[in-house]
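Predict both folds.
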Amino acid sequence: MKATTRGAQPFFTRFAGCNLWTGREEDRANAVCSFCDTDFVGVDGPNGGKFSSAEEAAKQIFNVWKDATGTDKPFVVCTGGEPLLQLDTALIHALHALGAEIAIETNGTIQVPDGIDWICVSPKKDAEIVQQSGHELKLVWFQPEAPPERFAWWDFEHFYLQPMDGPDIERFTKEATSYCMTNPQWRLSIQTHKLLGIP
């Protein structure tokens, strides 16, 4: 696996839709992943939308990146929802043709296609995970159905625990920190943008 550019400014591309929750509040209680905090219903916004081809989508990503950074080598982080419901070989090739490096954050229930430069898997509860290798495994703490011990032997370079946001964030942060201190394979991952109040 090729590691992506270190220190590059990431450009987050959020794909709508998830295979573990519809995104509708009335479905949350019965969802595989009921704690998702992503507002991924709809494609409103100046840079969102539906695209008729992979090339059109890649060009939009590239143009927004270039306008924001002035550089020609995008580092695109594909997230969601579940990006692999839409991110396919055609879009991967179209982004690479424009010089982009591609990272993905996926729930791991769909096999990651060839061509992704950095793979982050974030398992959710008791969902069946088929992508058991990559660069980083980021586990939200705490999910009783998904204890860290279940994933410790998987083929990843980095293992992170991320405290679940919400009313128990302080407790979860203390618990995750304590777990990392006694299990040095794992490191603490903090959602810094939320601490800083960045949407």
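Second protein follows, with its predicted structure tokens after the sequence.
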Amino acid sequence: MDIIKAYSFRSFVIIMFFMAFICLLVDSTFYVISNAEVVLSGHKNLIDLVVMLEEKFRLYYVPISAGIFTLIGLLLWVCMRFLFVNLLKTSDKAIVDKKDDTKVKGSLDKKEKKNNDRRLFLHLLSVFQREGRLMDFFSEDLNHYEDSQIGAAVRSIHESCKKVVDRAISPESVIGEKEGDQITIQQDFDPTAIKLTGNVTGEPPFKGIVRHRGWKAKRLEMPTLSSSLEPGIIAPAEVEIV
């Protein structure tokens, strides 16, 4: 990886620079001490020891010390590079894991949203079925019944479903005029609330006849949405255990 190469080169240069600086500092110190006969004139034994060391290591001390510090620098560089590579791999793995987790979570959220949309779509039917048995009525073959029987069944279903609608949305007419009355549509009318049909030309105001008063919700109190794991269930089957 480019980042590893860049870090390796820069860290190598920095470590070698500091090792060379320390080596130079140590060598300079030894050189100063080895030439301190004047300063140490009162300490003959110490001077003799320093002179002996200077004679023995004059030709070897500098390259040996340079080699030692170079070796220490290389070992330090290898350790730092190893730690950096491991840290980078751990970081990359954490990023990949995080991306995978985000992807899985996004997939789950998408699936949950889809299921939620399906539940919302079927939720109204579920409420009508629970309160007024509307799905049972739709599934019946009315050819097997007399009109009087159908009328009696429809009355009961109508009353139950009407209670659901009134309780949930309290519907009211979009406009106050009755069907068949004449009405003038002003220029600032809401096209989402009033649909114009017939000979619609020019610019408002328009004069027309009310064909349908429309419906709007005065309030909205949604019943609790089912948390069923199967969003296609409108109403569960009922089994009485005996």
